[in-house]
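Recap for those who missed Tuesday's class. We walked through two folding examples back to back. For each one, the amino acid string is listed first and its predicted structure tokens come directly after. Nothing is annotated here on purpose, so try labeling regions yourself before you check the end of the notes.
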Amino acid sequence: MLALLLVVGCGGRNAATSGGGKKTPLTAKDIVQRSSPAIVRIETKDGLGTGFIIDKGGLVATNLHVVRGMKEIKVKLYGGETYPVLEVVGVDPMRDLALLRIGPPKALPTLRLGDSDAMTAGDQVVAIGNPLGIFEYSVSSGLVSQVRPVCTPEAVALHKKMLPRFHELIKKPQLTEEERNELEQLQCSQELKILQISAPISQGSSGGPLFNQSGEVVGVTTLIVTAGQNINFAIPTNYLKVIAAKPAQISMDEFATKTQALRGPGEGAPGPDPDVKITREIPKHDVSVFAGCSPQQISDLVHNIWDTIKNGAPLYNAGNHEACFRIYEGTSTKQERDGGCKGVKSAFGDGLLRATAKTTYKEKAWALRDTFDGLLEAAERYVQAGNSLPDAKKP
């Protein structure tokens, strides 16, 4: 059993805590200077990623998708020393987490894991990683845009209740449309929520730490949705604490074999989209979704959505599902960032999250089309309630 010393820097008293026990906010510069020695680069034959040390004996946290299927993994430390991963001591596929163990000859600097459940929308965060694999400890700052539930306790309870049916469905070589919908409702074997953040995360920074203002790690940066402006996600570190508290011993051969077939988060199926059947899931919004939006902003939103559909739908009908999705994604990303009111931003954020979880571009495109149609229907009810909408402003 590994004894975990979750402390900032090289050990000792937490430098972000005052004598009275009250946490003192740190600047981004402070966080970078104190934490960089415990941030590492993960190297595999397929690519590079980021990780961070949470135990002085050599326990390294990262995203599972950074190392999945790999028999040989190397960890490069801040000082340039490189060590092979000896074994994997924890894996959580649903939450995209992995714990690796290296064997350094001396104690290593570590990072403190904070309470990710304490994070709320508007909290300031700092991310550090190795964009594009360049070992430069790049820093970005931003806010927690939203804490988004993916699998609720109710969905997990349903999965457990219907577990025999779930196993029956996943063993079938082919599913009817009704069975496919049923299986989708039963997927949540574990509770999951993620942190949506505005701090930019680049390729190669997956697996890096996300810090709160006290210099504690509250997330492991993971998913990226790219469309003009990045939407980024992090896995809360309270999930990491669970697997760190009960480390296992998984040989590199066993790890490579068992994770080879796992698909990374947000990755679509290779090649052309399979002939999947689409089930519409159009959100039913009350007109209060527009609370805080002016009539002009609602009018502009409606026209923007219709223009986007007009540009994307012909591409979809021609079989270019990815191109259609990219157009829908671009509009959704802009509205999620710059929407005129909280409800509209949240609706587009939920749609992008749902699209990210889909496998094919065909499904992703329809996930965002559902988002569009849900807001269009709400706008129609807004007008039916006696409100008027002006003409859209010309760009």
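Example two. Treat it independently of the first, because the proteins are unrelated.
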Amino acid sequence: MTLERRLMAEWLGTFSLLATVVGSGIMAERLAGGNVAVALLGNTIPTGAILVVLITVFGPISGAHFNPAVTLSFALRREINTRIAGLYVVAQIFGGIVGVLAAHVMFEHPLIDPSMTARTGVGQWAGEFVATFGLVGTILACLKARPQAVPMAVGLYITAAYWFTSSTSFANPAVTIARGFSDTFAGIAPADVAAFIGVQLVAAVLATYFFKWLLDDPADA
């Protein structure tokens, strides 16, 4: 695939992911009647489902990262060069922000509406560390054992992590940045974005090296 097609796949995939995350969050909140658990469930299921679809569709084109933490992991593994990794990240961030704006248009929400939802503190950061470490590990382990299972495994992991992590599993710097632009159920206050991203990147690096140790064939050493 040409670089242009790979970047478009990353842009469109991240656009679609954020349109789903924010759009389903708005719909879920409107229909839940104030029940936060029902709203979270309504946000969770579409997010996990769209990940299965997007990774299946765009995996053969770009690898279906849609996530700077995943791109960083593959760069550390020397499976993508630094220049292309940087372009992937730009495409992901831009696609995510436009996806949020598209969700706002669909639901007649103010187009530019920075979030007021505070997501900070040790518990939230620990949740993001666990979520991102587990996501990167899921991808790397599946690629080693059963590559065709990656779409389903990632979708199911994020579905579970929405509920077992205190942060509801952003696990993605591009998603975190984009959700800062949306004062809706899925939002995060811009002031809290940097800490989330820092924890996500640290978790991605540690997961990359841990799973390299765990999964590498000793005969290749």
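Answers for example two:
DSSP finds eight helices and no strands in the chain.
The CA atoms of residues 176 and 193 lie 6 Å apart.
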